[in-house]
Amino acid sequence: MRRILQFLQPYRTSIVWILVLLFLQSITSLYLPELMSNIVDTGVIKGNIPYIIKIGEFMMAVTVFSVICSVAAGFLSSKAAAGFGQIARRKVFAHVETFMLKEFDTLGTSSLIVRTTNDIMQVQQFVNMLLRMMVLAPLMALGGIIMAIYTDARLSLILLVIMPVLGIAVYAVLGRSVGLFRAMQGKVDNLNRVLREHLTGARVIRSFQRVGYEVGRFNEANVELTDISVKVYQIMAALMPLLMLIINFSTLAIIWFGGKLINVNAMQVGSLMAFIQYVTQIMFSVMMVSAMFFMVPRAQASARRINEVLDIHPTILDPAAPAAPAVSTGEVQFDDVSFRYAGAETTVLSHISFTLRPGQVTAVIGGTGAGKTTLISLIPRFDDVTSGRLLIDGVDVRAMNQHTLRAKIGFVPQQAVLFSGTIAENIRYGNEDASDWAVRHAADVAQATEFISQMPQGFDSVISQGGADLSGGQKQRLSIARALVRKPEIYIFDDSFSALDFKTDAQLRRALHDEVEQSTVLIVAQRVSTVMDADQIIVLDEGKLVGLGTHDELMATSPIYREIVVSQHAEEVIA
Known about the structure:
By secondary structure, the protein is an alpha/beta fold. The chain is 63% helix and 10% strand.
């Protein structure tokens, strides 16, 4: 919790003012019962009306001052708590942005969403309560005890019985809820995961008629969260009635023993009323602290979950002294590269060596699980090679700044990812400074202009998150346009033509030929028709390079490549 609360440092001045205001509020609140005692003993009993009016006016002024202090402290504490939440979300999100894929897999996407939203909100609410109560409640309790003893030391002996009973009651209730709150946040994670899977897989679920099964999964997760929530709040709900019961019995005891003191003229009526108010203030201070402790278990569980995110250190970091290529041409060299995923028993890639040169188109082909996507993910350094070297313009990618490295690359992923916004905004995502002409030109090359022009507002048409209102081929073409507008030195197309029909595929590759003729181009594809015109073709099989050359050369020398071609084309087409 202490580490999370460090995010409050920018609000140190506001916190100091909150402390001052709450201190003044507590002093005025403790002074009011003394004034009321004077009104009763000196004014009411003796019939001194001018004295009652004079002290009453002063009490009104003190009350107004106390209200002003309370409102100002509440405003500053709300502002500081909201700012804390903003800083915490920004810090967590920025830290998550440094994660590689395996760091994401450590906690899971759904859990990261809950931790960045719900968990930070829980801690934010606790901070708001803490800033309001951390001075007011202890001062009111301590001041109430002092004033109660000052008013009547004998009657104050009742506090020796009340305070331990209050402490035991609070501890008994809160002690049982700490672990339950932690478990409840885990159930929230599970519910969010089930809901997210249902929403993202809605088409598959309906096509296989598994709606009933998914509803059952959701109900199961929902019931688990409901059961543990009911159990927690049943325990916590017992706290307030228990405290009120103790307070009421304490008031009865004070009136009983105080009445006896009044009968023997050992205490004034006004003093008894003031004493009751002091004890009530003590009790309500304990209740305020209890309300704050009500939030402690859940806030503590949430803070622990947030710290788990912040404690994950990305495995891929920038070097202390980044190196920069002397000449930027976009040449990529794999020098005896091998790669193995963490915890895996076998290598995914073994002793891969080849060079990608500017002005050349290199294609990678192979069966499912051959390591094609893993191979290209090493270039932008989504993963680091296990052994060997991967050089760009003669510099090892591990020696380069990640921002500098990825600025050289235009990456089109296997699964097209679009964002909510206009088509122009999605294309300009590759280069936010791109002109309207550059955006339209990139769309022309990507063969996207035709379907864009048919949309109601053209390039200003809004698409939904993930491009759900577009076909697979349209999403792929927009992803390609996004990479083209970047004008990088290296283009990587990870099976980015699979959703295109043969005609569009051919037109797109012809248009790309002139657009990227000075750049290094790497294409991963399943179709032989997509790769057969490449300057060099790399054939992968079970993570090994088993063929390198042009289409004609590989047809003569590589049985695996020829098998792939035969499986896709009739013999007469091959001939």
